Predict the 3D structure of the following.
Amino acid sequence: MQTFIPEELEDDILNDLHEEIQELHEASEQALIELELTPNDNELQRSLFRCVHTIKGDLGLVGFMPMIEVLQYLEDILDLLRKGEAQYTSNLSDLVLKLLDHVTKFVNDCIQSGKAVYDKSALDATIEVIKTITKDNRDEHDKRLEQAVRCLTKEEALDDDPALAPRIELAKTGVPKDLSPEKQGDVLFFRELMRPIEKRAGYVEGRGERMAILAFYINSLSSEPLAEDQLAVACYVHDFGLAFMPNQIVTKEDELSALEQNLLRSHVYKSTRLIEHLNEWDEARKMVMQHHENVDGSGYPLGIDGDKICDGAKLLGILDRYDNLTHIAPANGEVLSEKEAVIAINQRYKGQLSGKWLRLFNQGMTALLKQ
């Protein structure tokens, strides 16, 4: 392992660098997600190239040199891609994502700790493999990209049998394990109560369960995971208030009037009040209250923004939208596939969702969709 200590830079420069790298990382992830669906889209390929090129340039300007060389060779591969001399594959996506994760961590460590520890041998081995990818050995690209990913992550090669590759196993139920009898009783009660509410609101049966199971998986990818029991209750309870709304408004397909919209938005207050005296679910209640708030302040009911919104609400807001897109057809459209829904969330709600939880959602969904 090597330690890099950057030259002292002004805080404004470091803050700008941090924001720029985060934005470019997110833009790269979005481009990769869309390329999974349309791998030959040249505009997406060009966008991905520009993101990596800009990241490399930004690091060069502040002297964060250890990541420059590997980004240059990654840029060379993406140049082949945009010229039609290479093909987009899942292994290329893996390599880009993992390298950008390394870069983002490197930058964050430099900014927060004044130094970054990185695995130079893994980077050097990755570079040696990437250097062998040229326009003249196109048939070998995917195999070499897979090798580069393994060098970067120091994984042993798996057997060619895909059955031996590790699979992601989602929870079987939205009820967490190892709860106290009292908490388990509460969660099971909320779970059962959600079923008639889902039916009344016109949701596809099992909405709360689907959201809780997916929430557990995305939450497990976080370095600071949320309490599963609070997350589960929030997933089951967040729409309780819809049961006390006029059904013709809840299920209305035409555009709502301002009065109807305000009435429908009040469901978060009603949902929250149903558990306000259950002190053990305080964090879940906060998630429920805030799950329609947006980080840019454009949400409701209070219009709060940024860190004023709890992490659980930020994750719940993403999963709420995702389930709507995959299970509720808009008035003049169709239910989206899982891939299409992930792309839509990144495109339609840009700036409204938490960058941290959107990255984890994208990471998790990309892995799930691949298998």
